[in-house]
Automatic annotation (TrEMBL):
One of its GO terms (molecular function) is ATP hydrolysis activity. This is ABC transporter ATP-binding protein. InterPro entries: AAA+_ATPase (IPR003593), ABC_transporter-like_ATP-bd (IPR003439), ABC_transporter_ATP-bind (IPR050166), P-loop_NTPase (IPR027417). It comes from Suicoccus acidiformans. The keyword Methyltransferase does not apply. PANTHER family: NITRATE ABC TRANSPORTER ATP-BINDING PROTEIN, TAURINE IMPORT ATP-BINDING PROTEIN-RELATED. It is a peripheral membrane protein. Residues 6-253 form the ABC transporter domain. One of its GO terms (cellular component) is plasma membrane. The keyword Repeat does not apply. It holds the Pfam family ABC_tran.
Amino acid sequence: MPQTQVSIQQINKQFPSRSGDPIHGLKNLSLDIQAGEVIAVIGTNGAGKSTLFNCLTGQYPIDSGAIYLDGKQVDGLSQVERAAHIGRVFQDPTMGTAPRMTVFENLTLAQKRGASRGLGISLTQERYHNIREYLASFRLDLEHRMDVPIGSLSGGQRQIISLIMATIKQPKLLLLDEHTAALDPRIARQVMEMTHTMIKEQDLTTLMITHHHQDALNFSDRIIVMHHGQIVDHYDSQAIKSLTTADLYARLEDLVLAEEAIL
Ligand SMILES: Nc1ncnc2c1ncn2[C@@H]1O[C@H](COP(=O)(O)OP(=O)(O)OP(=O)(O)O)[C@@H](O)[C@H]1O
């Protein structure tokens, strides 16, 4: 029987606006995610997808509601405290990595997330050896790039390293924030397939924002659709079997058209 790994309960997030009326980033949003479940998050522009991720990581404090991770309430914890348990990969490969530092240094920092000792003391021969072995297991030749600045890698290699950094501590929750959107289609496909393999091998509980609807259909156990700070649809694995990308585009278009009709 799968256990609930993440429970998001009635969370609200507003932003101030110049007009004085607050912007509703998230409205009473609730979601339970089972351990090992992969949920694709799609939605209209400005639906609140990134706000949801920022509230989960603690980058934005929530106004009300509660967030539980593996049974523990985390919404009061700082971003640094949550980082030990939540991995995130961004669309922009410069985010979440230190571009001038080497691959080895970046991976060492990722391994030490949530710990207090400085970087210098951690750059040991033993760690170097262990990280090299780990990189070699991906068969992408990355073990020979350990001493180059991460900024000099190709976009695809960088996203793979970002993924390895986000998962190296076996996070309780992995957040993929359109992580293949900036890559050319062939590389994006490879990175997505690699991502899927890593998620399955490590049984990672995952939320994945994507505009690639085919990826949502191919690689998730459930798809949620967001609009105006709320989840308006859930498609479970059974529903996904008969769903097409055209259905998903049509649904998003309907949401936008319904809004234009009201305006
Ligand atoms: N820091 C902020 N300050 C003010 N408003 C914000 C802030 N972050 C998000 N918002 C607003 O909250 C709403 C949700 O934005 P969010 O970026 O989460 O949407 P999204 O679904 O990720 O959109 P997209 O797919 O277009 O990137 C939008 O109206 C946005 O303008």
